[in-house]
């Protein structure tokens, strides 16, 4: 674990770095390197704001309209919650990690606990979203192979709780 939290080294979350390719080329000027990093940060902020806006709006629609709370839509709600988790936890730390690769700033900028959160978010959050996509695909396959299934009753609170535990 010390390998991942050593403050004197870069945050060693993987064997590659998105910023190392930009800073190691001697033919690229320092100004061009900074422009690339600024572009990464600006595009990341736009994605962050739009992701929060759209996922939050759709979750609000599901929360305010009880007729949308069907068993299948719990998977959709779970997907939106997973996307919000990625946007809130993983995305800002990834942008900070990329921005910390600026020339002369090759250290992880935060403490060990934030590094651990970054490592956790990079592993768990995408796995949650991938699992949610798999569950949605399985329910769609089920509906294709068994189209005469009974209509689904509205979802109850225990059903929502069990689905969120997945």
From TrEMBL:
PROSITE patterns: G_PROTEIN_RECEP_F1_2
Coiled coil location: none
Recorded topology in the membrane: Multi-pass membrane protein
A GO MF term: G protein-coupled receptor activity
InterPro entries given in the database record: 7TM_GPCR_serpentine_rcpt_Srx, GPCR_opsins, GPCR_Rhodpsn_7TM
Cell compartment(s), UniProt: Membrane
Cellular component annotations (GO), alphabetically ordered: membrane
Residues passing through the membrane, by range: 37-63, 75-99
Keyword entries, A-Z: G-protein coupled receptor, Membrane, Receptor, Sensory transduction, Transducer, Transmembrane, Transmembrane helix, Vision
Top-level taxonomic group: Eukaryota
Domain spans labelled G-protein coupled receptors family 1 profile: 54-166
Biological process annotations from GO: visual perception
PANTHER family reported in the protein's UniProt record: OPSIN
Name under which the protein is recorded: G-protein coupled receptors family 1 profile domain-containing protein
């Amino acid at each position: 674990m010390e390998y991942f939290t050593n403050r004197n080294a870069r945050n060693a979350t993987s064997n590659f770095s998105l910023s190392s390719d930009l800073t190691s080329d001697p033919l690229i000027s320092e100004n061009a390197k900074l422009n690339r990093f600024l572009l990464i940060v600006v595009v990341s902020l736009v994605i962050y704001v739009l992701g929060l806006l759209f996922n939050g709006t759709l979750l609000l629609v599901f929360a305010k309209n009880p007729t949308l709370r069907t068993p299948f839509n719990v998977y959709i709600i779970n997907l939106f919650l997973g996307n919000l988790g990625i946007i809130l936890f993983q995305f800002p730390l990834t942008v900070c990690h990329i921005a910390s690769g600026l020339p002369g700033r090759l250290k992880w900028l935060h403490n060990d606990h934030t590094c651990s959160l970054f490592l956790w978010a990079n592993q768990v959050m995408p796995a949650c979203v991938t699992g949610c996509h798999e569950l949605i695909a399985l329910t769609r396959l089920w509906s294709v192979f068994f189209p005469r299934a009974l209509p689904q009753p509205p979802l109850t609170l225990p059903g929502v709780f069990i689905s969120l535990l997945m």
